[in-house]
Automatic annotation (TrEMBL):
Residues reported in the UniProt entry to bind NAD(+): 175, 195, 200, 262-264, 286-287
Keyword annotations from UniProtKB, A to Z: Cytoplasm, Metal-binding, NAD, Oxidoreductase, Zinc
Organism: Acrocarpospora phusangensis
Lineage of the organism: Bacteria, Bacillati, Actinomycetota, Actinomycetes, Streptosporangiales
SMART domains: PKS_ER
Protein name in UniProt: L-threonine 3-dehydrogenase
Cofactor(s) the record lists: Zn(2+)
Protein task: Catalyzes the NAD(+)-dependent oxidation of L-threonine to 2-amino-3-ketobutyrate.
Length: 342
């Protein structure tokens, strides 16, 4: 079968013929239909410092996907051939304290699909049945392909109650835009998103935010005044990983404000912890999705009318992966989809 492989310890990706994966105990064999390109995949393509320590070659990339089940191992229940599925890309041990307590998203021995195990950028994929999410209601294939990052957005946006609250989102990447849309859909009064990309701020406006603020030309304080806020933001969603973004967010929270942080910084940086303490601000780190409560919420949000189509801005045949990756890396885009049927 064809697969997109990190074949060498250098920059680049290679479209190669590799053996079809063999179905193991408790697993499901999936024919991949579409995949989404993630920032993690871009890191692996450039083979930066993180990728060099995280990925052993050769490795089939990819963890955002939708596909059709073609075979299940003996004893697998609730997943059947013909089912349309996506998958949870964090494979957990099932034995540690958190796994046994039902907190699988906190497993200390998590293996990442497409990082520690061959992934979804291929014509076929195997995955433990316990990691498979069956789409029980109709869903657009492009949207189903990005359930993984959509789950990051939902997990972050719903970490704290947002009904009637004023929400600040720093970072208008695709996940930040989806998180802003989720917060608005879930009942936030105002949702302001910040970035330095006019293109992505425009995408956020089309997704229904109250205010998309270019922080090159305006401050968050000015944004608060435009929205008529007297004190500060109740909930912050930090999606950029930028030091200045978190510092500005902390400075503009109301007392007792709550911040969920998904953005991953490239290095350590200082913040004003005196402000965090005296304003009684809560900081919560977010990684991945809650299994599978977040997935349930994702499906219900879509059933309830949340429209993610505007955040998907490009689709390519998998054979044109270089052009797709170039567009994704350029930043003037939303989510980019690879079609494995074209």
């Amino acid at each position: 079968m064809k697969a997109l492989v990190k074949a060498k310890e250098e920059a680049g990706l290679w479209l190669m013929d590799v053996p079809e994966p063999e179905l193991g105990p408790g697993e499901v064999l999936i024919k991949v239909l579409r995949t989404g390109i993630c920032g993690t995949d871009l890191h692996i393509r450039t083979y930066d410092a993180w990728a060099r320590q995280a990925v052993r070659t050769p490795r089939v990339l990819g963890h955002e996907f939708v596909g059709e089940v073609v075979e299940v191992a003996p004893g697998v229940q609730d997943v059947a051939a013909g089912d349309l599925v996506s998958g949870e890309g964090h494979l957990v041990c099932g034995k540690c304290r958190n796994c046994l307590a039902g907190r699988r998203h906190l497993c200390r021995s998590t293996i990442g699909l497409g990082i520690g195990r061959d992934g979804a950028f291929a014509e076929y994929l195997t995955l433990p049945a316990s990691n498979v999410w069956v789409h029980r209601v109709p869903v657009d294939l492009d949207v189903a392909a990005i359930f993984d990052p959509f789950g990051n957005a939902v997990h972050t946006a719903l970490s704290f109650p947002v009904v009637g609250e004023d929400v600040l989102v720093t970072g208008a990447g695709p996940i930040g835009i989806m998180a802003a849309a989720v917060a608005r859909h879930a009942g936030a009064r105002h949702v302001m998103i910040t970035d330095v990309s006019p293109y992505r701020l425009g995408l956020a406006e089309r997704m229904g935010v109250s205010l998309a603020l270019d922080v090159r030309t305006a401050t968050i304080e000015e944004g608060k005044r435009r929205l008529g806020l007297r004190e500060g933001f109740d909930v912050g969603l930090e999606m950029s990983g930028r030091p200045e973004a978190l510092r500005d967010m902390i400075a503009n929270m109301t007392h007792g404000g709550r911040i969920a942080m998904l953005g991953l910084p490239a290095e350590e940086f200082p913040i004003d912890f005196a402000r965090v303490v005296t304003s009684m601000i809560t900081l919560k780190g977010i990684y991945g999705r809650e299994m599978f409560e977040t997935w349930y919420s994702m499906s219900v949000l879509l059933e309830g009318g949340l429209n993610l189509r505007p955040v998907i801005t490009g689709r390519y045949s998998y054979r044109d992966f270089d052009a797709a990756f170039d567009e994704a890396a350029g930043g003037r885009c939303g989510k980019i989809i690879l079609d494995w049927t074209a």
